[in-house]
Amino acid sequence: MTLAAPRNFDPLPRRASVAVDVGGVIVGGGAPVVVQSMTNTDTADIDATVAQVAALSKAGSELVRITVDRDEAAAAVPRIRERLEHLGLDVPLVGDFHYIGHKLLADHPACAEALAKYRINPGNVGFRDKRDKQFAEIIEMAIRYDKPVRIGVNWGSLDQELLTRLMDENAEAGSPLSARDVTREAIVQSALLSAELAEEIGLARNRIILSAKVSQVQDLIAVYSMLAERSDHALHLGLTEAGMGTKGIVASSASMGYVLQHGIGDTIRVSLTPEPGGDRTREVQVAQELLQVMGFRQFVPVVAACPGCGRTTSTVFQELASKIEADIRRNMPVWREKYPGVEALNVAVMGCIVNGPGESKHADIGISLPGTGETPAAPVFIDGKKAKTLRGPNIAADFEAMVGDYIENRFGSGSQAAE
């Protein structure tokens, strides 16, 4: 049999975009795709906001957006910035402004200075004759304080005058488009026209990021594809109102994964609705995992584990895989500093003899636990070679210790000195 020539399934080349410096984090210009998140605390509650920003930053969020919706929130921003710096956290803060952003920035210069970026929505920055004036005031503040701006269109608050005009023009056309297509065009035009106006006012092109937030997968793919064709601005990706749990994760991954594969997107946020009392850092973890499984970046060691079947009635391998993953997430803030390169580690925790040994050999360090009816022995493979066979009631704890030793030996200061 003659083999067919291989098709290229690698990601398309990254779209050329203008680089934007956001408090020392580069977005666009070929830089790695940046992960960001947003707090859901009342920004005026300084203690709660500092705690959540710190948690998001330690989880790996490289930018954190906070709501600035009233005077008390604006007044709290510089104090939040100071508290974070006291904790040794220099994560850039992005101010989210709606309706009265122009007034808050003017009335609270310390807030305007403390933020690394302003996010404004052209659909609610002002209405009718006030819209351009108030938009211009925010842009002028960004110029004064040398801050980049994200012009973030959202179809839940789309400029109705623009949409109405495009709908009327479409109705008069010989072959009218669907209302959905017109709405997509209005979203894209709102972003591009707003960016053009910002540049006319004097904001440099390398101080502008665009986003077009929609809540359906196909709409996200369409509007970002259109933006990428018609602009070289850096693009922020995100599916707004993605939802809770697996629905939000799947929808965000399906939509953003497609456009990322096509070279589109410079920074992402996974907008998950948290469970009541849930962990806000979940959205950071999902964003990191999306970029990591697609091969764009590496954030944490990968733990491969089999799904389980009738051969694996014991839950030991499930518990061990879960515990190792949790340990990795908990330790990564320290490991990033102590063990450079540890994010490239691959660990395998397998449940039976069928694929266990083979998968373990492919990992940097892996264990093949005994399945139902198998000899109660667990071979451990390191760098593709069998290193030890674990037995007895402490297999899980013994393997955890071996993983720790492997990390120290491979990524610790001693290994670097030996090199």
From TrEMBL:
Annotated signal sequence range: none
Binding site for [4Fe-4S] cluster: 306, 309, 352, 359
InterPro entries assigned: Dihydropteroate_synth-like_sf, IspG_bac, IspG_bac-typ, IspG_C, IspG_TIM, NO2/SO3_Rdtase_4Fe4S_sf
Pathway annotation from the record: Isoprenoid biosynthesis; isopentenyl diphosphate biosynthesis via DXP pathway; isopentenyl diphosphate from 1-deoxy-D-xylulose 5-phosphate: step 5/6
Catalytic reaction list: (2E)-4-hydroxy-3-methylbut-2-enyl diphosphate + oxidized [flavodoxin] + H2O + 2 H(+) = 2-C-methyl-D-erythritol 2,4-cyclic diphosphate + reduced [flavodoxin]
Gene Ontology terms for molecular function: 4 iron, 4 sulfur cluster binding; 4-hydroxy-3-methylbut-2-en-1-yl diphosphate synthase activity (ferredoxin); 4-hydroxy-3-methylbut-2-enyl-diphosphate synthase activity (flavodoxin); iron ion binding
Pfam families linked to this entry: GcpE, GcpE_C
Keywords: 4Fe-4S, Iron, Iron-sulfur, Isoprene biosynthesis, Metal-binding, Oxidoreductase
Keyword 4Fe-4S found: yes
Cofactor mode of binding and number, as noted: Binds 1 [4Fe-4S] cluster.
Domain IspG TIM-barrel, chain residue ranges per copy: 19-288
Role played: Converts 2C-methyl-D-erythritol 2,4-cyclodiphosphate (ME-2,4cPP) into 1-hydroxy-2-methyl-2-(E)-butenyl 4-diphosphate.
Name used for this protein in its record: 4-hydroxy-3-methylbut-2-en-1-yl diphosphate synthase (flavodoxin)
Protein species of origin: Martelella lutilitoris
The organism's taxonomic lineage, starting at the top: Bacteria, Pseudomonadati, Pseudomonadota, Alphaproteobacteria, Hyphomicrobiales
